[in-house]
Write a structure and sequence with these properties.
Layout (H helix, E strand, L loop, with lengths): L1 H15 L9 H27 L4 H28 L7 H31 L5 H8 L1 H16 L1 H18 L18 H12 L21 H4 L1
Helix pairs in contact: 1-2, 1-4, 2-3, 2-4, 2-5, 3-4
């Protein structure tokens, strides 16, 4: 319900600003679902944790929001910033896609921290579901022990991360980038000059495929269709 509401608001935003749907618009649904479900898992996990401890629904929601909203905002903000980097592209369509995706991520965050608590309050786990959650405390203890190992060895983790980062910075220069459509043509070829022109003034060449389907009873090689 929360993710579906976020999708309605997001596509409403696209309609409000007059943004037409395109081939890449199908990606927005995946992005919104991914971000929305990730935020919901964090919020609901904390909510259920306090329910198992015996807190009321209202107190559990308050404590869950208090402990997670900053984390949820940071994950949403960094994801939005990642999409905003698309605006550095020279292709206008990629620029608008990055901007719209970033706004969609923030819409998902707002819907999660406003609508999800209301639904959790009116539809909390009860009966057998709550008993099952209480029996799964062993999984919580395992995760806590795993977290404690990371916390007690934070200097070692920082050192290993730094070493891996330095090695990556050194080896990244050895990546060979040699995939060019125009590399098969000589510099004097007209098609090579066309590639260079589009690369300089239109942000490059992209593949485009289209299917032409004649009307019923017609064939693709009929003179009328060809004309």
């Amino acid at each position: 319900s929360v993710v579906f509401t976020g999708l309605i608001l997001f596509f409403g935003y696209l309609g409000m600003i007059g943004r037409p749907l395109s081939v890449t618009s199908t990606l927005f649904t995946t992005i919104m679902v991914f971000v929305g479900v990730s935020d919901l898992i964090h919020l609901q996990s904390y909510f259920q944790k306090y329910l198992v401890k015996g807190f009321s629904e209202a107190d559990s929601i308050y404590k869950a929001l208090s402990e997670t909203w900053v984390n949820l905002f940071m994950t949403s903000a960094t994801t939005a910033i990642g999409f905003l980097t698309f605006m550095s592209s020279s292709i206008p369509h990629i620029q608008t896609f990055g901007l719209d995706a970033a706004i969609g991520v923030l819409i998902a965050f707002v819907v999660v921290i406003t609508l999800a608590p209301v639904l959790l309050f009116y539809f909390p786990p009860k009966g057998k579901v709550l008993q099952r959650l209480q029996q799964e405390r062993r999984w919580d203890r395992f995760l806590f022990n795993l977290y404690k190992i990371g916390k007690d060895n934070h200097y070692l983790i920082l050192i290993l991360t730094g070493v891996i980062l330095l090695v990556s910075i050194f080896t990244i220069n050895h990546i060979q980038i040699n995939q060019k459509l125009s590399s098969n043509f000589s510099d004097d070829a007209r098609i090579k000059q066309d590639f260079d022109f589009f690369e300089e003034y239109f942000g490059g060449v992209r593949a485009f495929e289209a299917t032409i389907v004649p009307k019923a009873g017609k064939k693709i090689l009929d003179l009328e269709v060809l004309e």
